[in-house]
Amino acid sequence: MTLVGGNKGGKEDAGQYFDGWEQPLKYEMKFRMTIPCNFKLHRYPFGSHVCPGTFYVLNGGQPTMVFQSVSSSNTVEYNGTHDLLEYKLLDITYDNDEENIVLKLHLKSLYDYHVLNSFVPSAIVFLISLTTLFFPLNNFNERIMVSLTVLVVLAALFTQASGASVKTPYFKLLDVWYTSLVALCFSAVVINTIVHALLNRKVSVVGVIRSKELAILRRQEEMRRCMALRFNICAIIALFSTFFCIVLTYIMFAADAF
Q: Using an 8 Å Cβ cutoff, are 186 and 129 in contact?
């Protein structure tokens, strides 16, 4: 690089020569690009993700251009929006050497949509199924019809949620949630059937029933009713405890406790 001085006092200053290797050169470029991000979505719709993008210099084997950080911090200044549809951009960092620079986008899943449109409605549907166990034990038709209707509704919600979420070849937490609730609702159907069977278990009687035998039959009927009632109460406790544990586990996933 040669610099020629201006004309001062009628005399032309001599030019000065500077080695180009010692002069800083700043080059700015604005561009838009698409970076594929391969996320592991086993914890979908929860979890944090990192999307890396690698940039490198094609020098043809000659060290004519290198990457050099201008600051000690490895963060990138970003002035755009941080809410990116299903994810929130937490930070942008980079790692670099002389020939490569890896730009990392730190993202966190936004699960508010699925809480209001998947978790809450399906939880309410299961609680409706659980309330059938509080119906009178003799009302088998009402208990079984409500349980079956709830099971069909929950299966429809599962299908809708699967179509609206991302497609993966493996199970996600959202799929496990719906599968667990379907299993619990099916358990409620089975419990109602068992309670009905305990109440209406027939005892074969031969000949004329005497008063003493009638008292024994009534006592056996009362025992069957107590057995059905105890089984029903134990089933309520078991189903609600299982549901509570599942909800607590998903709350911990949402808080990144795992």
A: no
Q: Structure tokens of 126?
A: 């299961």
Question: DSSP state, 82?
Answer: S
Return the amino acid letter for 223: M
Amino acid at 59: N
Residue with tokens 């059937």: 193
pTM: 0.76
Looking at residue 7, what DSSP letter applies?
Answer: E
Q: What is the pLDDT of residues 19-33, one digit of tens each?
A: 666 677 777 778 788
For residues 100 and 98, give the distance between their C-alpha atoms in angstroms, rounded to a whole number.
6
Q: What is the separation of C-alpha 194 from the centre of its chain, rounded to a whole number of angstroms?
A: 35
d(CA 18, CA 23): 8
Q: Is the pLDDT of residue 202 over 70?
A: no
Mapped onto helix, strand or coil, the DSSP state of residue 58 is coil
